[in-house]
Amino acid sequence: MDPHESLAAYYLAEVLEKHGKLQEAECVLTEMGRDVPNTYLYHLGLGKLYERKKNNLLAAEHYRQAIRLDSQQPEAHYRLAVTLRALRETAQANEEFQVFSQLGSHITRGMGQGMGRMRPHLPDFD
Description:
single chain; mainly alpha; Serine Threonine Protein Phosphatase 5, Tetratricopeptide repeat; 6 helices
């Protein structure tokens, strides 16, 4: 899978997940993981999927992996903070919210990236 295909796979999984088709989204991410397992988008996508499935421990692990791969991505810090708060790890959650705040200070909601939502910077293309 080349970077453009992995980007398409990430967004396909996101759309499927938003429509409640979690099994299909997981299949797309599993295929993506076979081809490009060490990418920010792969781990961010899995984190979102596990968060939606209420498996906060796995979600947090994938968000941490995404951050290890690209620590400058505000969305991963934000999602990790939310997940840590759900796990009642308040001190760590507050640290992640602080990092998100520092990284996200230049971000405005939507930023022309569709549907008014924050989108990842797409580091896998750098």
